[in-house]
Amino acid sequence: xxxxxxxxxxxxxxxxxxxxxxxxxxxxxxxxxxxxxxxxxxxxxxxxxxxxxxxxxxxxxxxxxxxxxxxxxxxxxxxxxxxxxxxxxxxxxxxxxxxxxxxxxxxxxxxxxxxxxxxxxxxxxxxxxxxxxxxxxxxxxxxxxxxxxxxxxxxxxxxxxxxxxxxxxxxxxxxxxxxxxxxxxxxxxxx
Length: 191
Ligand SMILES: C[S@@+](CC[C@H](N)C(=O)[O-])C[C@H]1O[C@@H](n2cnc3c(N)ncnc32)[C@H](O)[C@@H]1O
Hints:
A seven-stranded mixed beta sheet has the order 3-2-1-4-5-7-6, sandwiched between helices. Helices cover about 20% and strands about 30% of the residues. It has five helices and seven strands; from the N terminus they run αβαβαββαβαββ. It is globular and about 70 Å long. The model has no long low-confidence stretch (mean pLDDT about 95). The structure holds S-adenosylmethionine (SAM).
């Protein structure tokens, strides 16, 4: 998230599935006014505590609720979702991301950072009882956003070196989707 948004001009941001608020705090520290939503009251309580500790409460609004509908009405310059995955078999990831996309202002960005593949040490993926992890190209296809309205800025998988639970080096694959909503065209009519 930091790599991809560092060059965007700060404005308003909405984050869906903010967890304990690390991304939202990062954005607020760089001048964004952020609304961040999560289902978990515990995560939101912790996020609010960090925001208060860092003196960011006036730039950060944390909301307990589900998806973009939990945020106040309106559009945002950046709408982001990082690792919005769940073990729930019926988790409506794509509908949640579509609703998030609906809240992007003209000229603004949608950023989706995801697990593009299971960690090499994990077992059980693909057995029908674990999250279906898809490459960003496939998620973009499932989102089925209007091609005339959206510019594809980044659609790629980035590899990240980590240490696995047994202390060995391992590589994770992060999906990155950065899409820009084209500004509405102003109709110029003859007087
Ligand atoms: C894997 S965590 C990722 C947290 C954070 N974005 C990060 O990158 O560390 C997924 C988060 O999504 C939240 N979540 C799941 N379904 C949600 C929904 N419908 N609306 C809002 N948040 C949701 C969970 O409570 C959890 O905090």
